[in-house]
Specification:
Blueprint: E1 2-9, H1 15-29, E2 31-37, E3 46-47, E4 52-54, H2 55-63, E5 72-77, E6 81-82, E7 91-94, E8 99-103, H3 118-136, H4 155-160, H5 167-182
Parallel strand pairs: 1-2, 1-5, 4-6, 5-8
Antiparallel strand pairs: 3-4, 7-8
Helix pairs in contact: 1-3
């Protein structure tokens, strides 16, 4: 069975949100999932000019702590992330290390000047967590705009897509997991 570990870095989700996230990801990826808090210093990743954190550096710091190369880690932070060449990112995945990262910052309706909305926020968290973990299971961006693996250029794209894999991505995932377990 695949093992996924969600690592919260200086942030948290409500218990009921954690339970829904755990349930959704276990069901989607047929995996055992654990949740922990990771005391990781992410200050090296901070860019003062941008007031954002470079995701690659955070992933690199987490890589130093990861013992099992087969385990997939999803880091969850509540800081604004960016990647080289992009204004911002909701998340990122590094296949070599088996580590993905998502930021809660731009998933909050308040970031866009709207009223807090827990249901919408949780839906966005589920989508981004599912998306980045999908990359760790070798899924690429999907052309189906409703598929959770579709690229999100803005929060509107995230809101338009569903939190589930489309049938094509589900089939690719099944092939990948079948091949892994046959070894």
């Amino acid at each position: 069975m695949n093992k996924i570990s969600i690592k919260f870095i200086f942030c948290a989700l409500k218990d009921e949100h954690l339970e829904k996230l755990k349930e959704h990801l276990e069901k989607t990826y047929f995996s055992e999932l654990d949740i922990a808090y990771l005391p990781l210093d992410i200050s090296k990743a901070y860019n003062f000019k941008r007031n954002q954190y470079l995701a690659d550096i955070i992933i690199g710091e987490a890589r130093k702590l990861k013992k099992d190369p087969k385990e997939k880690w999803l880091l969850v932070v509540d800081v604004d992330l960016y990647a080289s060449g992009l204004n911002f990112i909701f998340g990122q995945a590094d296949l070599r290390s088996g580590i993905g990262i998502i930021s809660l910052t731009r998933l909050k309706p308040e970031f866009y000047g709207q009223k807090p909305n827990e249901k919408l926020f949780l839906e966005r968290v589920l989508k981004e967590a599912t998306h980045e973990l999908g990359h760790l299971f070798y899924l690429i961006h999907c052309e189906n705009p409703k598929c959770v693996m579709a690229f999100s250029n803005s929060i509107l794209d995230t809101d338009r897509k569903e939190k589930a894999l489309c049938i094509g991505c589900k089939n690719i995932l099944k092939v990948y997991t079948r091949l892994r377990f046959q070894k």
